[in-house]
Input
Amino acid sequence: MKIGMLGATFDPVHLGHMAIAAEAGRSLSLGEVLFVPAGQPRFKSSIRITPSRHRVEMVRLAIAGIPAYKISEIELKRPGASFTVDTLAELRCEYTGSDEIFFILGWDSLEQFPKWREPSQIIEMCILAAVPRPGWPRPNLKALEKAVPGISSRLVLLEGPQVDISSTAIRQLASEGREIDSLVPASVAEYIRKHNLYTKHQEV
Output
């Protein structure tokens, strides 16, 4: 089976995430898309993240009714900073050797990929599926191959829709009591309002 792994803080999960999952699923003929909420991402160590129980529940609400979409709390159960190489190593133990894992990331993240922990090990365990980001240039494949030899044969560039939605902007709008219904699934918008997320009255 082909499995897509979509990792993010999902703070909150939004329609951009859902569009990426749908495009990857269609383009790569994925049998399953695994949403993996991050613990404490290395590159966001100074940013305050909403408690994991809220982020997990928002993902559950967003993917409800879509059988191919699953959620994994693998990174939330691991203490300390989250590293993709560790997550993939654990996931490989959960699936059979014939299962193929596609790690879904944005073109912006792909540019930084050579700086990640053990990038060569990562591409041994999965195929990178890179999706375009609004305003971001097409990846420089020659530079990537020079930095991480072998990456070009373990990389798929997707050409899906570029949805310009930011979790940061959603949090700001919610904190001001403004409308977010066009940016997140309806069930997620309702959850955010119910629990006063991103406001000074937020539930812990």
In short: The chain has one domain: 2-164. The first strand starts at residue 2 and ends at 8. The chain has a mean pLDDT of 93. Strands lie at 2-8, 32-37, 40-41, 69-71, 81-82, 100-106, 127-131, 155-157.
